[in-house]
Design goal:
heterodimer, A: about 375 residues, alpha+beta, 5-stranded antiparallel beta sheet, globular, B: about 325 residues, mainly alpha, two-stranded antiparallel sheet, 10 helices, about 65% helix
Chain lengths: ~375, ~325
Amino acid sequence: MKASFRKKLTVGLTAAGLALTAVLAPILARQLHPGDAIVPESGHRKVDLSAQMELFANHTASAALEDLTYVPKVYRIKEDANCGMTPNPACYGSSRDPSDVRAVIDAAAELLDGQETVWNENMHFWDEKEFSWYLDETIFVHNWTELGDVGYYCSEIKIADPSQFRRMLAGNSYGASQELTCSEMAEQSKAVLASNGDFYMHRVYGINVYNGRLCRYGKYLDNCFVDKDGNLLITHLNELQTEEEAEAFIEENNVNFSLAFGPALVENGERVVVPYYNIGELNDEHIRSAIGQLGDLHYLIMVSTEATVYSIRNVMHAKGCITAYGLDGGQTAETYFNGDKYSRVLYNSERQVSDIIYFATAYPYKEMQE
Amino acid sequence: MSQIAFVWNDVSIYWSNLILCCALAATILAALGLRLLQGKLADAALYLPLALVFGFFGARLQHWYCFYRQYEDLRQALTDYSVGNFCLTGAIVGAILAALLLRLLRGTKDLPGLLDAAACAGALGISVGKLSTAFYSGDRGKMLFESAFLQRLPFATALTDPAGNTQWRSAVFFWESLVCFVIFLFVLALLLSGLVGKEKKRGGMAFWLFLLLFGGVEIIFDSMRYDSAFFRSNGFVSVAQVFGVLVIASGLAVFSLQGIRQDGFSLSYPVSWGLFLVGGGIMGYMEYFIQRHGERFVFAYSVMFLGLCVCLFAVIRLMQERKAEAAPADP
């Protein structure tokens, strides 16, 4: 009797288990999301129709009035694009001769729109790398190496439109599980020049804004916000006390994305006094990187050899940055240009990171060729 | 029909999910079959639904813990399955907890035997389930292969990046699938030899063998992949690697304690502990090395594999001494 009951129980439970599986399996098959799909997702931003109309009107006017007057065409990278336009290989150049750089700067006069470059012939150049540059109708990037208290890899960038200053997250969405090297992301985003960002996945502090949306709130770091006009805006640690304040700041300042590493190095053209900071070991000598704004859509990115935060702050200030902000350093610090690492990477081996910032061309060279 | 899903009218089913369901079915059938062979089907029938639920939520909880940025909050992670993903280590821990709970509730009198069957079935399930990753971009390696010869399975699979370029990324999911199938064969052989062989094997050994081998290889595979799940507090320490180390260390502790308690202390134990430390040290250093010299992955992973072999040898030699003993007679 007992054995027969046990047998029945066994059969019953087995049947129940299989039935549960039969019910669950189709539910699982329909409901589970397969993680990060191979097919690239489009961005999350709402498409700004008025901006697109404006662009269309500009191009039409430029073409219609071609014989009468010069209306410069405005080029812009689509708001929902995951990458920039393909750079024109013919626009790259390099030389050891400073006069060649001067010639390129002269050729970039229209793009520079009266702004002075940081670079000049009287700098104490470091013979580590050749001068190199990229110039087309929408972007001018040039790189050089310089000696100060330590060595510096410098990249000066002038863009025509704020949409060309971008941030890429590995996996193209906030919080994605992949980590990639700076060079992999630079290639994926068609960057003319790419630099490491804040490696946001590595820490839980600071504010993260991506595509205008607040993704993470934290008050223990200085933050660098990039607004939709391409300006760097700084908030200091504990300045935005609540998530609501952060939301309001993003809304008021039309923030596009943010960086959360720091500290703030230069503000309003003045050096920031940083007695203490939660990350980054200010006084230790590490490879450091920083971004600064020199003027309207005009930036400077620097990667140092082993230096303190104060060294790179002083250099960014001396170069005339209105605003400057520290990015992640050590093995993360890197600039990437024309298919190769421009700065020397620690251990000569790129780290897998979660994000980069990059500057892309908006000139549709490839499309025009086609 | 599409690259990633089966589409029929308004119904679309991801291929990856279909393979996951096959993996689930394979696991359940294998577990039931093995328990049937062991003559204890009842507890398996009780255990499987429990393990399914615990494993499912364990996998989800770990994913939420490691990738919380992908979710609004924990509630969304546990209720909305259209976002996020799952972590295998969490599923395994969940399944083990389910077995322990069943024992606590007196749902089984033979926990070691149940775990043996579950481990064997689990290895098969992981082997099949890992193939589901072929249809999305997860579980790929950091290494990119540029040689045309290597641009195929089993070496690499193609991924298309946002710029439209094709990347040939190392197919870690495929390697894991193959290795798990080999682990399944090992565990099955051990289990069947205990069931049909002359010598009665000690219960739980197949489970331990699975844990040691799987935990061990995960230390290497997790170092290779570009989407490792890290601890929240530290973006460089991988949960799967810590799980692997803990499993091997636990095995060493358990078999050492059992042995010393039964046979007394001998020189064999410090030798095993020393080997474990040496192997662990080699693996730890190679992890440090690979994070700094990623391009030397062939050298680093070869040495790491040697370190793993030393570690596993240290534990399995102690386990071998225990498994020869006769198991207590069944009631």
